[in-house]
Amino acid sequence: MPRRRRVSNDDSTRSYKRAKANSSSRKSAKLASHHSASSNYSSKQCVVWFHEYATADEDVIGPEGMEKFCEDIGVEPENIVMLVLAWKLDAKQMGFFTLAEWLKGFSELQCDSIEKLQAKLEYLRSLLNDAIQFKNIYRYAFDFARDKDQRSMDLDTAKAMLSLLLGRQWVLYSSFHQFLEQSKYRVINKDQWCNVLEFSRTILPDLSNYDVDGAWPVLLDEFVEWLKSKRQQTTTLPPL
């Protein structure tokens, strides 16, 4: 009879490791296959999803459908992530998504269901932390929010949008809001809108680097003058 090979502890360890590796490979392959199947984007499914919110027989989601859409994805309509989503869809009018916009944006995002969009919400929020992307979103917001028959944005809408976009990150936002409240301005044009962002990014809170002879719009010259006067009055008030 042939002699039986003696199995060493090293052989047993190697066999165990191979078996474990093969098992892990099979599990990884199965998970990868499942992930691939669940993440496949379907334009047909995306159209079906769109019509859950669209007005009957129309290729547009209006305010009522938008409210239901926000409820389903668990996001308040005034949440800034909805503005980022509108930007991704290149939506032309606040409160409305057309089928063409829906398909364009969600094809890029590879979303055809509530669950897939919810999984993308953190990514959409993260775009606000990128200076270039934020600037693009900020500029987009002007044309998105203004009345389409007007070239400027009415002041109430401008204040709401500025609060959404700059309220938490611009130290002087509260002062600027107060200035707009008491100012003569009733609308904000696009040049003023874009310069407000530039001002918020470059001018120090103490206004020491503001150049009165610079190319800033009169709106911001008046804001600086108003704020300096307000601060001076505060510092010269007699003690109680």
UniProtKB/TrEMBL annotation:
Pfam name, any one: Cullin_binding
Disordered: annotated segments: 1-33
Residue ranges of domain DCUN1 in the record: 41-228
Signal peptide per UniProt: none
Gene3D superfamilies, per the entry: Cullin, PONY binding domain (1.10.238.200), EF-hand (1.10.238.10)
Transmembrane segments: none
Function (record text): Neddylation of cullins play an essential role in the regulation of SCF-type complexes activity.
Protein's UniProt name: Defective in cullin neddylation protein
Provenance organism: Priapulus caudatus
Name of the gene encoding the protein in the UniProt record: LOC106812497
